[in-house]
Amino acid sequence: MRSPQAEAAAGGFGNETPPLPGTRFRSTVSLHKLRRFNILILVFRFAAFCFSLASAIFMFTNSKDSDLPSWQDFDAFRFVAVANAIVALYSLMEIGASIWEILRASTFLPEIIQVWFDFGHDQVFAYVLLSANSAGASLARTLKETDTCTASNTFCIQSDISIALGFAGFLFIGFSSLLSGFRVANFIINYSGFYL
Amino acid sequence: MRSPQAEAAAGGFGNETPPLPGTRFRSTVSLHKLRRFNILILVFRFAAFCFSLASAIFMFTNSKDSDLPSWQDFDAFRFVAVANAIVALYSLMEIGASIWEILRASTFLPEIIQVWFDFGHDQVFAYVLLSANSAGASLARTLKETDTCTASNTFCIQSDISIALGFAGFLFIGFSSLLSGFRVANFIINYSGFYL
């Protein structure tokens, strides 16, 4: 008969199935934990989607009159609009993948591809969004000293709002990238058996 | 007698010592791996230190003549100079901690504090540095269209070089933050027994 310690070490599985790192994934407790984790990621992605979409819309509609300055006239504002639009699109896609994962308890792409795809894109898009918003904020600040803002104060205020929303979007995609980074590390450590 | 499977599941340890997650840390193979990992972090930190120090020096010395424009006159350039100086200082400190860890095979602060300290600061400083450099690049681009650059072309070129060096510094502190993020995840998974 096996000792209680050996039983515990084997994770409660029978002798025929020694616990491979991946098998912990299947236990009910882990599934609950994974579900909570996925719901948290979903919430962050949804927030990132809302903020970056709002930011992109605010910037894209920032040229009502042909006499007034337009967002297309400024490199940094073009960068803000496009970066936020891309992040909104990516977040929408990831919301779909996240819902799929919560409902079916398996990833949309094969797991190794999915975790690296999510993490890589989260990291890159978080940096791109921050870079765009910082460049936009710097330009908006410079414009305040020129006569662009005296000619059309609405243009400057709308740009400021768009950039502020963009920063909020960055915050949430940054949180998502932390969580998806944890998933990658978890995947590497548990599946490849790589321990420090 | 215990079956070979149970023996394997218990990780080759006796019945008295079921393998706690942390005990893998002590094996010689792991120590070698940890040493390689720490040397890689040290290389990244050294590169980040060199680039951000060079960037800060280039920006701080960008006002030789009182008639010409100075970096202090522009918010974004002040941000670039200060952010790079802070990152250079932080990197120097982390180089010290890294060398301590390689030589003594233990962290400078208690391990839980050290891994979170490194990761948190790496993340924040990577974002701060990127933000500063993006804002600086945006301003430098705007300045090219004004008469500041025609009055003193050297000022604009030196700013550009400083910003480019700052982006290189960001790249290396970004890599460091990936590695220290992996260390945090490894710490959470192996020491607190948290598995997804």
Helix count of chain A equals 6
Major sheet characteristics of chain A:
none
The ordered string of helix (H) and strand (E) elements of chain A is HHHHHH
Mean pLDDT across all amino acids of chain A: 84
**How many beta-strand runs of chain A?**
0
Number of domains of chain A: 1
- What is the general shape of chain A? elongated
Strand content of chain A: under 5%
Poorly predicted ranges of chain A: 1-25
Could you tell me the radius of gyration of chain A in angstroms? 23 Å
Helical fraction of chain A equals over 70%
Oligomer: homodimer
Largest interface: A-B, 45 and 45 residues
If you had to describe this structure to a student in words, what would you say it looks like?
The structure is a homodimer of 196-residue chains. Chain A contains six helices and no strands. Chain A is mostly helical. Chain A has one domain. Chain A starts with a helix and ends in a 5-residue tail after the last helix. Mean pLDDT of chain A is 84; it is low at 1-25. Chains A and B meet through helix 1, helix 2, helix 4 and helix 6 of A and helix 1, helix 2, helix 4 and helix 6 of B.
